[in-house]
Amino acid sequence: MRACRSARVPFALETEREVAMQYLLLIYEGEKRFANLSKPDLMAEIGQYQSFGEEFASAIQGGNALQPTSTATTVRVREGKRLTTDGPFAETKEQLGGYYLVEARDLDAATRWPRRFRARGTDRSRSGRSRTSTEVA
Fold this sequence. Notes:
It is built from three helices and eight strands; from the N terminus they run E-E-E-H-H-E-E-E-E-H-E. By secondary structure, the protein is of the alpha+beta class. The protein has one domain (19-132): Dimeric alpha+beta barrel (Alpha-Beta Plaits, 2-Layer Sandwich). It has a four-stranded antiparallel sheet with strand order 4-7-3-8. A two-stranded antiparallel ribbon has the order 1-2. A two-stranded antiparallel ribbon has the order 5-6. The relative contact order is 0.28.
């Protein structure tokens, strides 16, 4: 293992063995569609998320649903000055509704999970970003 000198806070780079990767699965949702669900449909969707969480509990490192974009505050720093704006940065058809942080051996394994969730009758989009984990659970 060797230390990285390029970051402000030093961290270890794993060089001697294969490490698991962590992937951030982003859940995008049309807020208006979600807000207009009937109670039975809402409970069915919540049940799908609960089933997904139970099925992949060993790989899920964290996650959460997010509040609607109407509760958001955008923070920017320009020329050393902090600027805050109520609401989202940009208007889009879909909004970030939540996320799962999962650990998987590779991208292929991590992208199988959202596909399986989609196969349960949803049409929401998911995206993923990864980072190397320096500790393997």
